[in-house]
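As a warm-up, study this chain.
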Amino acid sequence: MSSTDAASQAYASLGGASMGTTWSVKFLDPGLDRRRLQGRVQAALDEIVAQMSTWDADSAISRLNRAEPGWYQVAPAFFGVLKQALELAAATEGAYDPTVGALVDLWGFGPPGPVDSPPSQAAIDAALARSGWQRTELNAEYRGVWQPGGLQFDLSSIAKGHGVDEIARVMAEAGVRHCLAELGGELKAFGLSPSGAPWEVEIESPGLGPDRLPVRLGDAAIATSGHYRRYFTHQSRRYAHTLDPRTGAPLSDDLVSVTVIHAQCMAADGLATALLSLGPEAGPSYARRQGLAAMFMTRHDADFAVEWTDEFADLAGANTA
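Now compare it with the structure written out below.
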């Protein structure tokens, strides 16, 4: 038996369901109690849902969204995720915004359920008036969040990445040194794959060319944001689930998807959404100014273009050549 075969047999897999999707982890098992480890991962993800899921009416974020005006203390993890989301909102001047829950619901992509036609401009304007990252404040000393009244927080664009980070944290704390964690397609890797090389993962190409684009992933995370999966069609026009917080309407589909590599999956998740919202010109420009490892898939009539920053090429390896 080759060393590769031996290594492959030493790797184990776990998986489950969370956040409306599935999670999985592949790892070199140093002799752990796998049932207990699975329980610890699931418990960490369940806690995120209990704090940050707008689909759970009893979650902390749902209660905050229903709350009267005032300051409210939240759990440390909730505070940290919201803080990072609001910092990204400020950095992108509102192209990213974690307070658009009213708009998400209005367009049929939230807990109230789907719609079969776009809302009126008056309804969009009313939802925009209830949104806006600048309407809230944080108090770091007391982990306080200001609810001005009617503001609908929505962390769905960043909480899944946080979930991947939590899976990786649980694995590392259990003594795992080689691991690939995944939740709903977002991934984080550390150590080596069964082949003894860095983990190779695939970026989905949404019907524009090769089905998958392989990249090498070292000790880092990767997340993709796109508007080709969730949408509804009305009078031959497609309305995607990714909304522009500045206009209250779905993004145009010229920029199909954005993929970001980052040390932290939560950061990669949020940044991918922010760059998608910035669009096919401002997105790449922002990524290059900030030194981000990002790849952009843009539609051009029946063709498409793929571009990436130098940082993405450096981290992703030769497969981007």
